Amino acid sequence: MSLIKNELSAQLDDVTRVASETLELFADLAAGVEPPELARLLDRQSKTLRRLVDEISEHRRRRGELPEAGDPERAHLRAAAARLRASVLPGRAAASYAESILDAAATLRAEIEEALAAGPDDRLRALLEDMKRETDDFEQDVRSLVPDARPR
């Protein structure tokens, strides 16, 4: 095991950190988000994302790497900010939640794209491409459900 991380390892740490924080955000929001269909989308995406993060981390451990964990406090603060925005924007709560969710998904996609550009092995590439595809599909579902959500 090496204490010095190469570019790919650093990029993968970023993906798993952002994915873990996104999972925490989704869990925090799922309990109170409106409409209920959005909560179901969050739950479904969380399960998919958790599975992919676990598979990426397990593959990295088999290669002798120690994946870094995310910062759950950052996710909790983001969720609190999303709830606050939703409460002060009468009539736009669903859009406000959707915007926070879409922002997190866009951040995750950017990290995935950077990791893909760093040249992962075939298995990691497949997992990252699955994560990107699932993230893109999730964003499309959120936008369909809450069409008045504005990108930031």
Structure description:
With 152 residues, the chain is mostly helical. It is built from 5 helices and no strands. It has helices at residues 7-30, 36-62, 72-88, 93-117, 122-145. The longest helix has 27 residues, at 36-62. The protein is elongated, with a radius of gyration of 16 Å.
Strand percentage? under 5%
Structural class: mainly alpha
Integer-rounded radius of gyration: 16 Å
Largest sheet descriptor: none
Could you tell me the mean pLDDT?
Answer: 85
Count of DSSP H/I helices: 5
Instruction: Name the shape in a single word.
Output: elongated
Low-confidence stretches: none
Order of helices and strands: HHHHH
- Give the helix level as a range of percent: over 70%
Question: How many E strands?
Answer: 0
Cα distance, first to last residue?
41 Å
In short:
This protein has helices at 7-30, 36-62, 72-88, 93-117, 122-145.
How are the secondary structure elements laid out?
Layout: H1 7-30, H2 36-62, H3 72-88, H4 93-117, H5 122-145
Spell out the key features of this protein.
152 residues, 77% helix, mainly alpha
